[in-house]
Write a structure and sequence with these properties.
The chain is mainly α and 346 residues long. The protein has one domain. Helix content is 78%, strand content 0%. The two termini are 25 Å apart.
Length: 346
């Protein structure tokens, strides 16, 4: 069910931006990070291994997964900048502007140094991909290797969040340090790593996974609805509650028994759509806003954008992701000839 969860999170991010219920989007980003921490530890330990060849294949497959759809999203962002009124784009995101230096262009296409409020972006939410890439590399090099490292990583992450909240008296600055930075994302990624390394212990303790899933889902959804309804912003404890509840939800999901083939296929299809939805929702939303003059009532913008965004996402998954997936499968077959060492799974 991870595909369904990622699809849901992508739409929550879209709703956060297009309806201006922005705080549910921040919750969803950290939920994405938790899932990424779990999955990257999973594939490094169980598919690629921590040898030089394993890390090489892992890096190649991550690049194939991230960059081609992202570059298409950059082209769509550039088209929006060329054809949609600037006030519409700035209303959606103040950082959505033409890069104004050679470094900004390089940063936009490579994701290196793509720091919010410092570099204008062709794809407004693309700064999160810079964070993801950092931890993909860090997990492969060191952070994904075992339980003790994962626990120490969580301890460091908690200390970081407590420290930046304590030293920054300005709540806005403290929030920036707790959300936008690479250090901030250490917390959700480390939680995902802990869930992976303790997955056997978690499975042994979840006696009724389906009932646990219902309970965790209800609490998770209630926290999101509270954020959307109250709009208390960066001073709300719900942000950290989300990290805890999302971790519990993920821990329960990985204990569920296998579903039917048809449900598994649907879950995979929804998961395939999550990345295009995340990449393209602002561009499609800008086009919809310009064509339908919906800037004054943002809930209508989200509803009007949804069908076209779903179509665009399907087209990207069908004609961009699927051909690239065939290349990634060749890499996976090469990895199968060099399986990870048994000692690396501990």
């Amino acid at each position: 069910m991870l595909g369904t969860l990622r699809f849901t999170l992508a739409w929550i991010v879209a709703a956060g931006h297009l309806e201006w219920t922005i705080w549910i989007g921040t919750y969803a980003v950290f939920s994405f990070y938790i899932i990424s921490g779990y999955l990257m530890c999973l594939i490094m330990n169980e598919r690629y291994g921590f040898t030089s060849s394993g890390i090489k294949f892992y890096a190649l497959n991550r690049a194939l997964r991230i960059y081609p759809p992202y570059w298409l999203a950059c082209a769509a962002g550039a088209l929006a900048l060329g054809f949609v009124a600037p006030e519409t784009l700035h209303w959606l995101d103040s950082g959505w502007r033409w890069p104004n230096s050679a470094w900004d262009w390089f940063s936009n296409f490579s994701l290196i140094g793509l720091i919010p409020y410092e570099v204008d972006r062709l794809v407004p939410p693309s700064w999160t991909l810079r964070v993801e890439l950092f931890y993909y590399i860090a997990i492969a090099i060191f952070l994904g290797r075992g339980r003790k490292i994962a626990l120490a990583w969580v301890g460091f992450s908690v200390t970081y969040h407590l420290y930046v909240g304590w030293v920054n008296e300005n709540p806005l600055i403290a929030w920036t340090e707790r959300y936008f930075t690479i250090g901030a994302a250490s917390l959700p990624f480390s939680l995902g790593a802990v869930i992976y390394h303790f997955r056997a212990s978690i499975a042994a303790r979840v006696c009724r996974p389906r009932s646990a899933l219902v309970a965790a889902s209800l609490v998770w959804a209630a926290n999101y609805l509270c954020a959307a309804a109250t709009d208390t912003g960066f001073e709300s404890p719900g942000f950290y509650i989300n990290c805890g509840v999302s971790s519990i939800l993920l821990a329960v999901l990985i204990t569920l028994p296998k579903f039917s083939t048809s449900w598994h296929q649907l879950d995979g299809w929804l998961g395939d759509l999550s990345y295009p939805v995340y990449l393209m929702h602002m561009q499609v939303g800008a086009l919809t806003a310009a064509l339908c003059s919906l800037m004054d009532w943002s809930p209508s913008l989200f509803l009007a954008t949804a069908p076209l965004l779903m179509l665009v996402s399907w087209l990207m998954a069908r004609f961009v992701d699927q051909p690239i997936e065939r290349l990634r499968n060749h890499v996976k077959k090469a990895v199968s000839r060099h399986p990870p060492r048994e000692t690396q799974l501990q």
